[in-house]
Design goal:
By secondary structure, the protein is mainly alpha-helical. The chain is 83% helix and 0% strand.
C-alpha cells in the first residue's frame, strides 16, 4: 500500500511538473511571437522613416542646387547681376546672423572664406580648362582670418 501511495504521489508530481512545463512553454512561445511582431513593427517604422528622410534630404539638396543655379544665372546678367550678388550675400549674412546673433560681419566673412577655401579645388575642376584660373590666384583673393577663429 505504501508503495502504491508513493507511486501515486510521484505520478501526481510528474504530471504537475509536465503541466507546468507545458504552460511555461506556451507562455514563452506567445511572448516570442509578440516580441517578434514588435520588432517587425519597429523595423518597418524605422525603414519608412529612413526612406522618408532620404527623400527629404534629396529634395533639399535638389532645391539648394536649383537655387544656386538660379543665382549663377541671375548674377551672369550684366548690371542686374552685381546688385543680385550683393542682395544674395546680404541675405546669406542675415541667415547666418540669425544662427549666430553675437557674430560680426568679419566672423561671417571668415567662416565663408574657410568653407570656400575647402571647396576651391572642386569648383576650379568644374570650370573649362581655358577659363580656369590657377589655385594660387583664387586663394590670394580669400582673406586671412586667423584672428577671428
Amino acid at each position: 500500500m505504501r508503495r502504491l501511495l508513493r507511486l501515486l504521489r510521484s505520478t501526481v508530481v510528474l504530471v504537475w511538473l509536465c503541466g507546468a512545463l507545458a504552460v511555461s512553454t506556451v507562455a514563452l512561445g506567445l511572448q516570442a511571437i509578440t516580441l517578434s511582431a514588435q520588432v517587425a513593427t519597429v523595423t518597418a517604422g524605422a525603414t519608412s522613416a529612413a526612406i522618408k528622410h532620404r527623400k527629404d534630404l534629396a529634395k533639399a539638396v535638389s532645391k539648394t542646387r536649383a537655387k544656386a543655379r538660379l543665382r549663377r544665372m541671375i548674377v551672369a546678367i550684366p548690371f542686374v547681376g552685381g546688385g543680385a550678388a550683393l542682395a544674395f550675400e546680404a541675405q546669406d549674412f542675415q541667415d547666418w546672423q540669425t544662427e549666430n546673433p553675437e557674430g560680426s560681419f568679419a566672423e561671417y566673412s571668415c567662416e565663408v572664406a574657410e568653407v570656400s577655401a575647402a571647396l576651391v579645388d572642386d569648383v576650379l575642376q568644374d570650370l573649362p580648362e581655358v577659363m580656369r584660373p590657377s589655385r594660387d590666384v583664387v586663394m590670394a583673393k580669400v582673406p586671412e582670418c586667423a584672428e577671428h577663429t
